[in-house]
Amino acid sequence: MKYIIKIITLSLISISLSANAIPMAIKHGTTLYDPAKAWSGYILFAGRDAKTYLIDMMGNEINRWLYHAFPAWPIAGENSAKILVELATIDNHGVDYQPFTGMLNVSIGEVNWQGKVVWQYGSKIDPAHQHHEIQRLPDGNTLILRAKVKRIGGWEHDIIDNYVDIISPEGNSVWRWSVADNFDKLGFDSQQQKIMKDSKIVNLFHINTATPLGKNKWYDSGDKRFAPDNILINSRNGNLAVIICRETGEIVWRLGSNFPSVNYQGKIPRPNNRCA
């Protein structure tokens, strides 16, 4: 009887484990593609295997580069076939220096179709510390979002500052804007500033985006705040987005960090692709 009970128990455990196990056969390649609705083209992305891939809409590999990227950026131009990638990193120096902060990124560069490095920026002596954003601009300069350990005036601990840096082909900074240097202009009230100061959080701002606005209807309608060269950035941790004037360095538009209170009645609405 004990033997039968043991067999039944083991069988139930086996069924339970099987129900929660990852399927042995996982479908690879394109799993959904509706040409009538999808924007057809090519997809450039950095994989978790420290390589960068170019695939078509059917999931076929067109090319791969033996470099990671955060993110990869295609360089526009006739027959260019070049991309911007991450070239070298350093070992982790602590919990606050995770890869997503940019503090481990030593150098970035431009590689051709065959993977040859044709332009490089950053070194172990002067690291690039790039993260989340890198773009080759129409004028040939390269916009990168960078990180740097810094201390805001009056604070007692260092933070990882995020700043936008536009680099010339020769490696010179032609325009730079620091979040920490403009902390008092971000819209945080005195109580919020005190909370942030006392939090001792190192990755305080965590900027995810830094991009020129490009051509838009608001500028065409006469609103100079939305000049195509002005830079839009957003702070995930700060819960805000701002537009920075390239000419003056001033913040000309801001969303957040304070929003009106919302009192939902009943079920809280969620995006369509998420479960309630």
UniProtKB/TrEMBL annotation:
Keyword Signal: yes
Residues in coiled coil: none
Pfam families in the record: Arylsulfotran_2 (PF14269)
Keyword Nucleotide-binding listed: no
Signal peptide start and end residues: 1-21
Keyword terms: Signal
PANTHER family in UniProt: ASST-DOMAIN-CONTAINING PROTEIN, PQQ ENZYME REPEAT PROTEIN-RELATED
Protein's name according to its UniProt entry: Arylsulfotransferase family protein
Organism of provenance: Arsenophonus nasoniae (son-killer infecting Nasonia vitripennis)
